[in-house]
Amino acid sequence: MDDTNSQAFQDRTCVSSDGLTLHLRDCDPGSDVTEGRLPVICLPGLTRNSRDFHQLALILSRDPVIPRRVIALDYRGRGLSDWDENKAIYNLAVEARDVIEACAYLKIDRAAFIGTSRGGLILHLLAGMTSDLVAAAVLNDIGPVIGAEGLMKIRDDLNAARLPHDMEEAAALLKQRHGADFPALSEDDWAEMATAIYRDVDGQLVPDVDPAIAQQLLSIDFTKPVPDLWAHYENFEQLPLMAVRGENSMLLSESTVTAMASSHAGLKIVRVPGQGHPPLLHLEPALSNIQSFLAAIQYADH
Known about the structure:
- The protein is α/β, with parallel strands linked by helices and 302 residues long.
- The protein has 12 helices and 10 strands.
């Protein structure tokens, strides 16, 4: 990422109700051009952070026709946010509460949300926890049914990966591990992914996340069905909703997407060829579809 792009956002922090300092990136082009327009809040995956949305946030906030404020969060234990001493409360309910509190800190009472993987699960809860906050939702490669095979793959990848010596090796390792699912990605895409995932700590590149979060997956009993979120998915019934699915995803199946469309008549479905879990949203065809989806609900009236 070049340094000029880093000037396009402001690093901000807020404090959760239980005392943790939480970090977020705020790409705000200014109230003079965004007055009355819905901001966009981006929620990353299980072990990921706000840097995942760097390119998307730049594009949306600099849109020549509809520029908008874009905020991306680091949940507790990820990125530049504090790690929680109580590892047991790294869970969806607590993280959803953190999102609500971050919005209150930012004085945002209504927004469009983009949730990747874990972020989409949090969105399922948010839509029911607060009646007005979620004005529209994009679910990136996630739905009310989580594919067990995909979850096992995430578990194994997170808990078996070796540490790279530098960013070049980090990009190469990511491509080696995930390249078969993401043939559409360029070398630059792998390099950007590496900078989003890893951080230098005392001269060693490490995933920018509390290891306890990845270790939680080791306790899942895959002999039992993964609980579904259909009851929470009903919270989207009256909202504009988009589902993005990577062609090679093992976490969100085509059958689940079909069932989601049957349950939500207005669901917009975007299928991304040459990508797995989760697709990069600043690449086509996801990007233009997100832009048109947001354009249709751009103002913050209820």
